[in-house]
Design goal:
The chain has about 425 residues and is α+β, with helices and mostly antiparallel strands. Helices cover about 45% and strands about 10% of the residues.
Length: about 425
């Protein structure tokens, strides 16, 4: 079997958001968009008002209003108002201006927090005892704002990006907000015709059939189409199990734990052109944690503590994230928490890949087995579900009609595909049909 060197594959990140209905008529799209606009004026709007009423940082509250309003303007009578072109265009220019101001958006609203604290103290109105307390209060209000916008159900790509901007803004992921606003602005800056087409597009089935390629197909980062085949990678702790299933022509669902489905809502053989996104889902690489001596455990924890302090110094994480991270590491060191909880430091917000050989070897620790990345080749009909939200009954129908499905990979979804048809797998590592 030809395994790939995971150190040679570039890193990539993505943010999960919900998808859209499978198919809609024009009238259904209009009605559901209007309902979406009304829902945005409910709890999400109230969350925005609470941010503004707090008066912790007026600039943050100002942009919370305009970013949250984007999805409302797009969805309100979408065809009559051309996807809200005039208002959305103006709002995006304003949002972009503040987010990318040379003085620094984050710097400015944090300075506002400091000045507001000074003013309150001078007036004898002490709401918060320190900057950190006020900042944390604002983050909590932002989280409510993000959570309420996350509950909205966008119907197309434009609406989904608008919601994603609001969610990211509430979660203080400002670079993600800049990325999304840039995508939306690039569309609206091209004029009314381009924007209206983008903002009022409603879902249609999109299929890639390797037996009937036109040359214009695009799977994004789910896979690469080459010579009439889909080339991608599969991540597994036990690739030999998959090979046995393929050789015996058994259901691909047997390669997963019973009842377990993946991100595409079904079981089967999952693949991606950027497999590094799935490395953290491997479990056996953590087996070394169970064999650590007390001194090795302390060495590992001390190293993680230094990493987290460095992340805070470089402003990769916030004060409270450093505080929580260091506190829990010391709890683990003192035996108050289980060592198994260390695995969370490989995920958000720290993203420390301390399971890798180069990290552990420096500490004199024998690493666990790294997950295998296996190249695969596939054929057949694959349905693009990037812009769709599939229920169980709809997925059953899709399985009966197609060989697999995929997400192209966007700010909203990790790039990946799945096949449930054993015969669609032409090659899996060294195994070939």
């Amino acid at each position: 079997m030809r395994d790939l060197d995971i150190e040679q594959i570039a890193k990539s990140t993505a943010i999960k958001v919900l998808g859209f209905p499978v198919q809609l008529t024009k009238e259904e799209f209009k009605d559901q968009s209007k309902q979406l606009a009304r829902e945005q004026r409910g709890a999400p709007e109230n969350a925005m008002r609470n941010i503004q009423l707090s008066q912790i940082a007026q600039l943050y509250g100002y942009l919370a209003e305009h970013i949250g309003d984007l999805i409302h303007r797009m969805a309100e009578e979408p065809f009559y108002f051309h996807g809200g072109f005039d208002v959305v265009h103006e709002k995006l220019k304003r949002i972009d201006m503040y987010l990318n101001d040379r003085y620094g958006f984050e710097r400015e609203f944090k300075e506002q927090i400091t000045e507001n604290l000074k003013y309150d103290i001078a007036q004898g109105k002490v709401k918060y005892k320190s900057f950190d307390e006020a900042y944390e209060a604002l983050r909590k209000l932002g989280k409510i704002y993000a959570d309420e916008h996350r509950k909205l159900k966008p119907i197309n790509r434009a609406q989904s990006l608008a919601r994603l901007a609001a969610v990211a803004y509430g979660e203080f992921r400002f670079n993600d907000v800049r990325n999304v606003i840039s995508q939306l602005k690039s569309k609206v800056d091209q004029g009314l015709e381009v924007w209206e087409k983008f903002a009022t597009e409603y879902p249609q089935d999109k299929i890639i059939d390797t037996n009937n390629l036109t040359g214009s197909e695009n799977m994004g980062n789910a896979g690469v189409i080459q010579d009439g085949r889909i080339i991608a990678y599969h991540v597994s702790d036990h690739p030999e199990k998959v090979i046995n299933i393929l050789k015996q022509n058994l259901p691909l669902s047997l390669g997963r734990d019973q009842g377990k489905v993946g991100d595409l809502g079904t079981s089967g053989l999952y693949f991606s052109a950027v497999p590094q996104l799935w490395l953290n889902r491997s479990t056996e690489k953590w087996s070394f944690l169970n064999t650590l001596s007390e001194s090795q455990l302390h060495k590992l924890i001390d190293s993680l503590i230094e990493d987290i302090k460095k992340q805070r110094k470089e402003r990769y994480i916030a004060d409270f994230e450093e505080e929580i991270g260091l506190r829990d590491l010391n709890y683990i060191k003192d035996g108050l928490l289980l060592r198994d909880l260390l695995v969370y430091y490989a995920g958000q917000p720290y993203n420390i890949e301390f399971w890798r050989k180069k990290y552990l070897n420096k500490l004199g620790i024998e690493p666990g087995p790294e997950p295998k990345i296996v190249e695969v080749e596939l054929k057949g009909k694959f349905l693009d579900l990037t812009d769709q939200n599939i229920s169980g009954s709809a997925m059953n129908e899709i399985i009966s009609k197609y060989d697999g499905a995929f997400f192209r990979g966007t700010m909203g979804r990790d790039p990946q595909g799945v096949t449930w048809n054993n015969n669609s797998v032409l090659r899996f590592g060294d195994f070939k049909r």
